[in-house]
Structures are given as C-alpha cells and as structure tokens.
Amino acid sequence: MHLSAPAAPEADGSEAEFVKYGANRLAEGKLPLCAEMCSTKSLLAGDGEIIAQIYKERVIKRGYGSGAWGWQVAYRETIAT
Q1: What is the pLDDT of residues 31-59, one digit of tens each?
Q2: 9-41: buried (b, 16+ CB within 10 Å) or exposed (e) per residue?
Q3: What angle do CA 71, 76, 79 make, to 5 degrees?
Q4: Total-model pTM
Q5: Residues 38 and 61 in one domain
Q6: Of the candidates 64, 28, 29, which has an alpha carbon nearest to the alpha carbon of residue 46?
Q7: N or C: which end of the chain has fewer CB within 10 A?
Q8: H or E segment at 8?
Q9: Domain carrying residue 24
Q10: Same structural domain, 14 and 38
Q11: Total structural domains in the chain?
Q12: Based on the domain organization, do 74 and 64 belong to the same domain?
C-alpha cells in the first residue's frame, strides 16, 4: 500500500481554489453563507468575543435551557419555580 503526502491547499483567492471549492467567503472577509442567511439568527460566526457578548445578551433576555422563552410551548412542559 502506497500512502502519498496530502496535496498542498490551494492559495486563497486562486483560480484552483475557486474551481475546486467555489467562493472562499472567509478569505473575502465574509461570514459563511449559512450564518448570513439563517432566518432564526441561531448560527453565529466571527470573533469569539463578539459571539460571547451576543450569547450573553440573549441569555439575559431569553433565559436558557428549560427557562428559555418558548420552551413550555415547544415541549409542553411546565417549569417549577
């Protein structure tokens, strides 16, 4: 059995990269399309400190786990307080 070395990755923005993978949104300074188009805004991408701040604000506003808004409707459960 012959194992060959993995091919070197294509350079960002190169024609070879585009042909093989399509647009490289991260190299273009953009977010992945799934995060850009997420209708619920549940997919986050970017700088870790900014994401942590967004998450913290969401937890303060909405709660988390079984205390999150919508949980009772979605799972038909009551929360003991």
Answers
A1: 888 888 888 877 888 889 998 998 899 88
A2: eeeeeeeebeeeeeeeeeeeeebeeeeeeeeee
A3: 60
A4: 0.47
A5: no
A6: 29
A7: N
A8: none
A9: 10-45
A10: yes
A11: 2
A12: yes
